[in-house]
Design brief:
551 residues; alpha+beta; 5-stranded mixed barrel; 17 strands
Length: 551
Amino acid sequence: MAEQPQQVSEQQVNELAQKVEEVILGEDGQPLSKKALKKREKELEKEKKKQERLAREAEERAAREAAEVDHGVDNYGRSAVNMSREKTETKWTALGELTAEMVGQLVHVQARVQGSRPVSGKMCFLVLREGVETAQAVLSVDADTVSKKMVKFATSIPNESIVSITAEVVKPDVPVESCTVGTVELRVRKVFVTSEVKVTLPFALEDAMHSEEACARDATLNRVGLDTRLNNRTMDLRTITNNAIFKIQAAVCQLFREYLTNEGATEIHTPKIISTASEGGSNVFKITYFKGAAYLAQSPQLYKQACIAADFGKVYEIAPVFRAEDSNTQRHLTEYVGLDLECSFREHYHEVMNMIGAMFVYIFKNLELRWARELEVVRRQYPSEPIKFDETPLRLEYKDAVALLRAHGEEMGDFDDMTTPQEKTLGRLVREKYGTDFYMLDKFPLAVRPFYTMPDPVDARYSNSYDFFLRGQEIMSGAQRVHDADMLKERIAAHEIPLESLEHYVRAFELGCPPHAGGGVGLERVVMFYLGINNIRQTSLFPRDPKRIDP
């Protein structure tokens, strides 16, 4: 009879499992020797004592701090949410107003903490930022105002939080080269957080302010990609460079208005929801309009001409323009800001073209004069030379530009439209030959212009149309418009556009309209090329392109 296997009790199984668990294996997977076990026990005991010592020291330190009188307790902290409960007579000073003449004065400032740097438990530095300006603030323990706890609090303020600070203006031992305000610094007396950052920042703001040259010199510098910046645009717009870029953008609009208002022009506001394509083309956004369809305006073209027919004389508009072009280049957007103008003239469309040239000269000169500080900030991150231009802008005819390009080896027909590379090449050739970055190109081939463009009276293959170029790229397109109703109908038919779709437009000219000319300027392009920036998305506040409609 076969021998029955011995039964193992549950208790025996548990005892065996416990013994296996107690076996400590070495790196080779084998049980440790007695000598190795003793060594390990000593190390564990040593670590245990270390942790007990650290815990004891922490308790003692906490006890000392609790017992220590905080003489700065009323000078720092987190303010309650500002609900406009009270008004005070506090005089606030902007960082950009700080000067060496203010040394010794007590000032009140509100700014963001761009960064903090503790030197010891008794001293720390803060970098404050407001608009395009940065300044250094210092907290140092003293007997009356600043305590160690106050210094500790200041170093714990999250970057990008907003603080209100009371400080004495002092002269630093050496100029603060890392800040835009370098001749003085702030010796902090009070610091209160008024708006605290409570999330992890998407990137360090300093990393978004490195120039290409700095990154090339120092490979350890972090770079922030354009997509990351645009995905977190609110944060990105806080850089002093971006702040300056959009102050300059606003300045271009301001100067555009100034000049044209002084010329007697009227600012108008035209519809952006229209029943037909502005330019008679297909690059339009079609939208649902109640039970029908409508389009987003490609330009205010038809309406600004209607205002000329209504005897406004000279008109301009600053408004959004929509182009449904599936283009992902560095200089195209699907929505941009158009600076449009239209003016009647007495004898020749050059009256308007030359006025536009003078307008640009006015804008360029005043930017350098009145926004020099902002230009300096931008050029620190995006180095570029100021543009070269003449008081009377250079005028070239299209055929002369074609001749220049052919002499340089470019192959193109007399009536071919220029490619972007050819435009850039022409800009370089013009700068070399005429010493200017800004010029007017006149008499474009009629075939490459819209239906409402007036043909050249001498050679109908050309037209009374022009483009303006800056640093070799187009910033404005314009022309004399067809103002005769019969001629306009002929031009519409030649472009195979249904006449009924432009019925209201043509009607304005049947009522009689003076000769006129005008053009449209792309605001973002002007700023981009003027500043020498490589991507138009950087000069658009919240850019829209075929792949981006957020944020």
